[in-house]
Predict the structure.
Amino acid sequence: MAIKKIKLNKKVYSNKKFKEEVDLSFKKLAKSKKKFNEDRLKGIYDEIFYDIPIDGKDSHKNIVEQTYDYLHYNKSKNLESIIKNLADQIAAKTTELDGYNVITPEHDIYENGSLVMHGSNNVPYQDSNHIWIMQEGRKRKFESDTTPVFIETKKALKLPMDSFDGRYYAPASELNNIPDGKPITKMEDLNLKGHQIIPAEDLEDITIRNAYTQIELECMGNEIGDYSGQVINGQIDYSQAQFRLGSGGCQLKYLVDDYSTDTAPLIVMTRTMTKGQKVTIDILRTGIGNEDQGLPTNMEDYYQQNGAYNVQAVTYNGNTISNYEKRWGPYGLGEYPGILYATGRLLVRNIPNEYMQNILMVPQETEQKILNGLPSTLQTSTGISDLTIVDGGQGGVSSYGTKMIYKGSGVDSTGDGVYNLWGNLNQSSNLQSLLNNPNNYYYKITTNVDKDIGNTPVYGQPIIRYMSTYCVLMGGYVSNLTRKLRFLDLETGDFFTRRKSQVEDDLDWLMVTSSGLGILGMDWSSSKLRGRIVDQGYIGLYGYALNMGQGSSNPFNNGSNYRYPSPPA
């Protein structure tokens, strides 16, 4: 018997297709021939109500769903038809979309995934900390290139961890023309795409910061020439010059950043400082590009308009100081061209700046130096003079026109602990308190002495600690056949007299006499007298002959009116 092959075809329907092909709903209900007892049915339902499960087959939920389908059959069929049509439309559009070559938006210059900073010549501008990443043709901002989310982004992109990561440096004009995306502040922000990265509101344009240097200024006061036409051995002494710092303040004019590069003029700030005041300010400097150029091209106009060339020249004894230091504006030492005007003695110190040192690789001097003021030596038409600057004092010149004498407040120019001040010759603080008074009698060039002694020098003479006061020997005279000496009391301004014998007994100070009652002078070589002058009094000024001396020199001062002991020749 031949074997007959029977071909069986099996058609498998999906659940969705089966429901489309086979109607599972009720069309009509068959009626039982038995009489239906509704009360009995209701009673059975009540009896088993709590035994019926909530979910699953033959459950309360299933009974409700079947009842709803029966009651709303037509409405359900209509909704199913609408859903089917919409699903068909979505499928058709999906097929149509798949046929297109979809292109992700990208900027013309900066490709997606690239990093951009505000800068020029491969260097960021000062204080430009933000960095952007390009996504779908938009720039999305990180707060800085050190935030954790930025670092994680670089890791994901497999970029180097340093700044040599291929980032671009663009001017603000270009950056502001790139459409903004939402900033990235947390890791979740990296998952945004498409319309999700478009910000709800416009973001602010990039602020332009001009290049600047931060400095600390200190006002030392106004400089006043302390000169009184001092004559040494018949010659005006120009080898030593002295100024004092008065209580007047300093004034400064400088350009202030207005955070823009428009054509509007920059702001000029005027600052007045009191003596001893310190301030920290930002001074505009030359930048690295067109946008951060802190100094305008018409700087000469600013100098002219703000008096840079009208600052009064500083003079000493009527001679202009040619090497007066000006590290500002248009002058030869113009390290700070953004400063337009300065008066008073001003010191400056650069505040360390990481951008200048680490990005621009510009070394910064952080030691305090002169911005505007006198140098350590003066150059005038009379030659070069060593300079001493005294802080304060009683006016520099006494009421009698002589140079005031100072002690221990000035500049130690040699580093040996001795200050180069006029008259700083080892006097005690008690004596100096007298000399701080510009009206003290010691500052008189001469005074008329009674007892027929006449007009006698005072200023520059040795001061003796004698008779419990500070005094100067004025001269000798004879009275009642007795040789006597006349002294000027510097504390009271009165004269007093001591007999020759008293002075010899008190100080071992001998008088040089001639026959009869003649007085030739005094022998100033007594060691006891020297102690009363050198240790307790004042040695006097070099170049002044001693009253009743035996020569034209001062044996207690061998060559300096600024230091004791005198420096070696």
